[in-house]
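Sequence only, no structure available. Ideas?
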Amino acid sequence: MKKTKWLSILVLCMLFTMLTSLCFAEGENTITPRYSYTSYITAGLDINGSTADCSGTVKPSGNYSVSVTVSLYRQNGSSWDYVTSWYGSSTGGKTAGAGGSVNVGSGTYKVVTRGNVGNGMEYPTKSVIRTK
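Reply:
I predicted one. Tokens follow.
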């Protein structure tokens, strides 16, 4: 009886662990955090010729205000050098977006979207990296 009880508990723990991992898996090598007050967050970076098009959006899950900062960085060895940023905001549960274009040289670039939902209730973040 005791062995059956412990075996059942072990099986439940293994199932819980497996299901939890599946809930957070978005892609093969990507883990996306789940937010309480954010429906979604995006980060976009397209490099065409010498132009980097950067974008980001944040949508709250309720009737909250939201602000968004989209920042572009260039890789310098093992660190990232700041290039520029764009800002946006919205109220009433609407999506906030920001972004723009900038001339870039060869190298590896990263766009980071940072949100502020509900005046500090949550700070979602997402990034994307591209090499020219």
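Residues 20-27 have pLDDT under 50 and may be disordered.
Hope that gets you unstuck.
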